[in-house]
Amino acid sequence: MTIEPNSFEFQLFFVLTVILLIIKLMISIYLAREIYAKKQKSGHFSLDFLSSLFILIICMFISRVFYIQFDFVFTQFDPEKYHTFPSAQLWQIGSFIIMLGYGFFIFTVDKRLLDFKLKGILSYILIIVGIIILVYPINTSEDFGFVASLLLIGNLAGVVLIIIFIYIGIKTPDLRKTFYSMAFGIIIYAIGANLVNTQILEMLMNAFGSEIQIVMILLFLIFKITGLTMVLYGASNLF
Questions:
Q1: Would residue 3 count as lying in a domain?
Q2: Quick one: which of 236, 237, 228, 180 has its CA closest to 60?
């Protein structure tokens, strides 16, 4: 990231990040209400697709709380501070939580929707990598770079989910709209997450000037909210 501390772009990005955090909390509350209503109707609680989605969104919410501290309080997007205490440790905890959420969600999708065809292997890999990220000692910039590279394995979870949802959509025409919505929601959310990637921002700034940062930050929020909405819309048809 190339945002200067206390600049307009910095403040804008902070406000939009908080807005996104609130939206994740609202989605979590909505899912919790649906789970409670389902429990009241059936008389028992079950770990199904709905509850696993709730856990994933909660993990995304909690991890973002740690990332906000890392980004806006302790490092202020200065790479020289990424490996310092307590910045690195906050980042490690946040990363572990999101990997745990991905692992649990994919395990449930595998178990409930694919008849355990994946044998839980990807979920176990994600959780193991999450543990490594959490406990690996970070003392230098090189240490942080190595651990951050492990987080890229989490991107594999998104790719696999997209493939799974498209596959189920093809196989079940009645649910095609539902699973296509979730698949494209994940794609849009992932695009939004990468719009503020350091390399992308630097390339665009060289081409269009520093003002492009504001546009990309706004698109970051729009894409993420749109992606989450599409996933929730698709999932709501499975309630």
A1: no
A2: 228
Q: What is the total count of domains within the chain?
A: 1
Per residue, what are the HEC states of the chain? Answer: CCCCCCCHHHHHHHHHHHHHHHHHHHHHHHHHHHHHHHHHHHCCCCCCHHHHHHHHHHHHHHHHHHHHHHHHHHHCCCHHHCCCCCHHHHHHHHHHHHHHHHHHHHHHHHHHHCCCCCCCHHHHHHHHHHHHHHHCCCCCHHHHHHHHHHCCHHHHHHHHHHHHHHHHHHHCHHHHHHHHHHHHHHHHHHHHHHCCCHHHHHHHHHHHCCCHHHHHHHHHHHHHHHHHHHHHHHHHCCC
Domain containing 161 equals 8-236
Task: Tell me whether residue 2 is in a domain.
Answer: no
Q: 211-237 pLDDT, tens per residue?
A: 888 898 899 999 999 999 999 988 888
Instruction: For residue 79, give the amino acid letter.
Output: P
Greatest extent of the chain over all pairs of C-alpha atoms, in Å:
60
What's the whole-model pTM score?
0.92
Residue 191 included in any domain = yes
pLDDT single digits (tens) 1-18: 557 888 888 999 999 999
In a domain, residue 1? The reply is no
State both tokens at 136.
Answer: 């690996």
User: Tell me, what CATH number does 70's domain have?
Assistant: 1.20.1070
